[in-house]
Design goal:
By secondary structure, the chain is α/β, with parallel strands linked by helices. It contains 19 helices and 14 strands. The chain has a 6-stranded mixed β-sheet, with helices on both faces. A 4-stranded mixed β-sheet has the order 3-7-4-5, covered by helices on one side. It is elongated and about 110 Å long.
């Protein structure tokens, strides 16, 4: 693919971020300056003040070294051996002081950077995890790519350079103030064609710095946009590689690796094209940076040579002025030396601010009146009151749902594909805020959602069993009983083993693990979405019988398509798709106890005719899988 083959087809999520938004610096400071307030204020200010003190100490030492240049070279020019020896001892002391001050400054700088980065990453991660925004972002803000990269690498690039910039700018201002004075007093004036120019070294230093800095700004201006494009491209290739890893089995089974390779090649071509822009721009800027490195030490010697040759200036004065000129150039050209890093900072800060703005928008939307209200009811029933569920763009999926679920009741939600069943139960579970109406949860109750693919965290099997939130010690016997009851007896000896359980356990075993969690957690309300899809009929019967026995008091609201699921429920609700959103068209709960008794009779009859399940289906599936 050529560089310009697809200029706007990839990475469209970043097109609005290529130019830094207006007010970027103020927005980023509002986001990140809380580090200097609140619980972290003490350590933040301690390191900040230490750095400022060390900057002052370093400037004083540099001024001492500048003065030493004049004294040492004057002694050398006079061939004064005694003074040369004493000045060498003086320089040793100055060198030790300079190194000590610099080491202390580096330590404080790195410590401040690390703590600030940790604070900001923690704040972003907390906002990301709060109110299930990590889930809502995938639906409402899919254009905000790679939030994990923004919270790690982009935060690092957006915080570390700022500390360096603050130190460098403070150092540059103080150094310019000190050494401009040296140039003015030690350099004196010069007469050219009858015109006397006082402090001409200062004038020349300012003109030289203005020339180099101006050229750097002009040449470096496009670099900010190019760097943003490059970062977006790299984020995209990381996203695509992660997507392949997460869907490795599906891709391998259908033989899609060649298509994935071609897609990655196209993205890599775009990454390379955007890198070329950055490389070309940095190459142009290198002319100025390295040209300045070569010329800066020579220019003051050329400017001072006439006065030295005429005897108006001693060798010590010339060397002092040359050293001061270099220090002034370092101060004046601070922007030149840091423009590339500043461009990288703006690109990353833009991505961090955009992520925070997304969190802010989601938080504001969550407080809007056009949102589903999840509240605690006044009794032990679960109630849906005029519940309408919509997509984040406002399109209504379920319209005006009204239902009451009694304690211990088992309800199956059915409907054609795309009618909004999964969306409705996610709204009831509090995962889906878009819509209107009320969900009244049982008073004092707890809700647990069991998805089709349960999440199994890294760590020990014990931690996976008590996930989430059950941190107190659960007796081993309770865990073993839950494993045994759910067909996972063979895992009982591995409670304290650490492994990738999402890879070790089969799909069916992971679903059984989710049912074992229910036995341990004992929620008031269980909401399930295709939670038995990976189980055979006998295993499904074993797991669903939990709601007849151990979990008989739990309210169950489930979605499923497998035949025979109605056997395990007291009543069935049908969702029917309509032009203005799906509605509940059939709720056999209206028949009351008679309907439930009829359903129960059919359930008992079908179970009597069904073959008996094997005692431990988990062991059998484990053997087959291996």
């Amino acid at each position: 693919m050529s560089d310009a083959a697809q200029p706007n087809t990839l990475f469209t999520a970043e097109e609005e971020e290529r130019e830094p938004p207006r007010g970027l610096h103020r927005a980023f400071w509002r986001l990140s300056s809380g580090f200097w307030r609140g619980p972290t204020a003490t350590q933040a200010w301690v390191f900040t003040l230490l750095i400022l003190a060390l900057i002052g100490a370093n400037i004083a030492i540099q001024y001492g070294i500048n003065r030493w240049n004049r004294t040492f070279f004057d002694a050398l020019d006079a061939k004064d051996t005694g003074r040369v020896s004493s000045e060498m001892l003086m320089f040793a002391g100055l060198a030790v002081a300079a190194v000590t001050a610099m080491v202390a400054q580096v330590f404080c700088r790195l410590a401040l950077q690390a703590r600030w980065r940790r604070w900001l990453t923690s704040r972003l991660a907390g906002a990301w995890l709060k109110d299930r925004r990590f889930y809502q972002m995938s639906i409402a803000a899919p254009d905000v790519d790679s939030p994990e990269f923004r919270m790690t690498d982009d935060v690092r690039i957006a915080t570390e350079p700022l500390v360096d910039f603050a130190i460098g700018l403070s150092n540059a201002v103080l150094m310019a103030a000190v050494f401009v004075g040296v140039l003015w007093t030690a350099g004196g004036s010069i007469t050219v064609m009858g015109w006397t120019i006082p402090g001409y070294f200062v004038v020349c230093a300012a003109a030289y710095a203005l020339l180099t800095s101006g050229a750097m700004v002009i040449l470096g201006r496009p670099l900010i946009r190019y760097t943003g494009d490059k970062n977006a491209a790299e984020a995209q290739i990381r996203f695509e590689l992660v997507r392949v890893r997460e869907n490795a089995e599906s891709i391998a089974l259908i033989g899609g690796e060649e298509d994935e390779r071609k897609g990655l090649e196209e993205t890599l071509d775009e990454v390379l094209a955007r890198w070329r822009n950055v490389v070309a721009q940095q190459a142009r800027m290198t002319f100025i940076i390295h040209g300045n490195t070569v010329l800066a030490p020579v220019v003051p010697l050329l400017l001072g040579a006439p006065k030295f040759l005429s005897g108006e200036m001693s060798l010590g004065q010339l060397m002092q002025i040359a050293a001061a000129f270099v220090q002034v150039q370092i101060a004046f050209n601070w922007l030149v030396e840091n423009y590339i890093r500043f461009a990288e900072w703006e690109a990353s800060a833009t991505r961090v601010v955009a992520l925070w703005q997304t969190f802010t928008d989601l938080a504001s939307a969550g407080q809007s009146d056009d949102r589903i209200a999840i509240e605690e009811g006044t009794d032990e029933c679960l109630r849906l009151r005029d519940l309408s569920v919509a997509q984040h763009n406002g399109r209504v999926v379920v319209n005006g749902a009204e239902a009451v679920f009694e304690p211990g009741e088992k309800v199956l939600l059915r409907g054609e594909s795309g009618s909004g069943k999964s969306t409705l139960i996610r709204a009831v579970a509090g995962l889906w805020p878009w819509g209107s109406g009320h969900v009244l949860l049982p008073r004092g109750g707890t809700v647990m959602f069991v998805p089709q693919k349960p999440y199994v965290p890294n760590g020990t099997l014990r931690e996976a069993l008590v996930y989430p939130g059950l941190r107190e010690n659960v007796p081993d016997q309770d865990l073993l009983d839950a494993l045994h009851r759910c067909g996972l007896r063979h895992m009982g000896t591995r409670l304290d083993e650490t492994d990738r359980w999402d890879k070790v356990l089969s799909g069916g075993e992971q679903q059984r693990l989710a049912f074992a969690r229910l036995l341990i957690q004992r929620p008031t309300v269980v909401i399930m979405d295709e939670a038995t899809s990976a189980l055979d009929e006998a295993s499904q019967d074993s797991m669903m019988s939990l709601f007849r026995d151990e979990l008989r008091d739990a309210m169950l609201l489930s979605v499923g398509h497998r035949p025979g699921l109605e056997d395990y429920h007291d009543r069935t609700i049908e969702l029917s798709r309509q032009p203005r959103g799906a509605v509940i068209t059939n709720d056999d709960g209206a028949g009351g106890a008679k309907s439930r008794r009829s359903n129960l009779f059919g359930k008992v009859l079908r179970r009597a005719l069904r073959p008996r399940p094997t005692p431990d289906p988990g062991r059998e599936e484990q053997v087959i899988r291996r």
